[in-house]
Amino acid sequence: MKIIVVGEKLENSLFEVVKISKKLDCSLVFFKKAIKTDVAPDDLLVVDAGLVGSLPDNLDNTVISVVDSPNYVPSLKNEKTVSLSSLVFLEQMIQKSRTIEADPVVMDPASRRIFQIADKIAATDATVLITGETGVGKEVLAKYIHQKSNRSQQKYVVINCAAIPETLLESELFGHEKGAFTSAFQRRIGKFEEADRGTILLDELSEMPLHLQAKLLRVIQEKEISRVGGGSLKVDVRIIATSNRDLGQAMRDGTFREDLFYRLNVVPIEVPRLNDRPLDIGPMAIFFCRKYSCGQKTLSSRLLQSLKQRCWRGNIRELENAVHRAVLFSHGDVVDATTLDTQSLQQISHTGV
Fold first, then answer.
1. Same fold, 2-98 and 109-270
2. Which residues of 330-353 are buried (b: 16+ CB within 10 A; e: fewer)?
3. What residues are paired with 70 via a beta bridge?
4. Taking the model in full, what pTM does it have?
C-alpha cells in the first residue's frame, strides 16, 4: 500500500505523514500539483482540499482531504477530512480506512440508492422489510440501519427463522416460563425481550410457520409478547425482517400471511444482485483480500478484471469465497489470476465465463 500525498500546502507538514507511513509500514509518494503515478486499488490519497476536484474520475480509493476551513464540505462519496493543524489525527483516520470492519462497500449507484434510503429511515422506529437473493448483503444493510439509528447503543439481536426447528422457534422468540413444557427447567428470556429498547433482525422471516406469524402480528400491533406458559409483557423493539423469497408468491401459496406482510412492509428495500451493481465488485474483492491476508496482499488488475466479468449467482458470499481461495493459492504480495489455473478460475463462478 502507498500513501499518495498531493498538494503544496502539505509539503511543510510532510514530516507528520512520513512518521505515520513508517508506523503503518506504507511507502510514501509526494506530488505538488497532481498525481503522476499509477494508483493501485488499495492506495490511500491524502490531498490538499483545493486539489480534490483534480483527481481522476475513475478512482475508487479512499481520499483524505486536508482542509484549512471548518466549513469545507466533502464532494466525494469516499472522502474524509482532517484539519491541516491536526495532522496528528491522520494516523487514526488511515488506520480506520484500512480496518476490515470498515463501513459497507458502497460504490455502485444502485447500492448508493439503497444506503441513502437506509440513512433517511435509520433514525426512525419504522419497521423495515429487506428482500433480495441469498448472499446480496441483507444482513449487512440491517446492521447498518441499527448502527445509524437512535438505538445503536442498545442491543442488536439476530435470529435466523430458517435455522431453528419449528418446535423451538416460539420459545426462542418469546421465551418460556419454568415448567411450560417437559424440558423447561427454568425461565428463559426470548429474543424479543432480549432486544427490548434495541433492534431485532428476523432473518429469513418467510420460513416462519403460520401460527407463529399470527403471534408475531400481535407483537407488532400491541408491542407485547407472551412467554410460553406465562403472562404477557410490553416490549419496545424495532423490527427489521429479511427474506430471499418472493413474498407475493408466498401469500398466494398460503404460506405467508397477507396481514403480516402489510404490517412489515412499512419501508420495503430490495437489494439487487451483485451483478446488477458491478462497480461494487472490485472494491469488495479488495476488501476481502485485505481481510483474508490480514492486509498483507493486494489483488492484481488482471484478477480484478477477471472477477468483474463473472456471473455471481451466489452474489457477495460467492465473491468472498472466490477471493479467499485466491489468497490461499497465491504466492508473494500480489494475488494474480495466474496463481490459479483455468479450471480453478472456472470453479470460482458457476458459469465459468
1. yes
2. beeeebbbebbeeeebeebbeeee
3. none
4. 0.69
Q: Which three cell numbers stand for residue 48?
A: 490538499
In angstroms, the Cα distances linking 64 to 2, 28, 47, 98, 281 are: 13, 15, 6, 13, 23
Burial of 12 (0-12, 13-18, 19+ CB in 10 A): exposed
Of 55-64, 81-90, 177-186, 260-269, the range with the lowest mean pLDDT is 177-186
CATH 1.10.8.60: does it fit domain 275-348? yes
pLDDT tens for 329-339 read 888 888 887 65
C-alpha span between 305 and 299 (Å, rounded): 10
CATH number of 2-98: 3.40.50.2300
Query: ∠306-311-312 over CA atoms, to 5°?
Result: 100
109-270 adopts what CATH topology?
Answer: Rossmann fold (3.40.50)
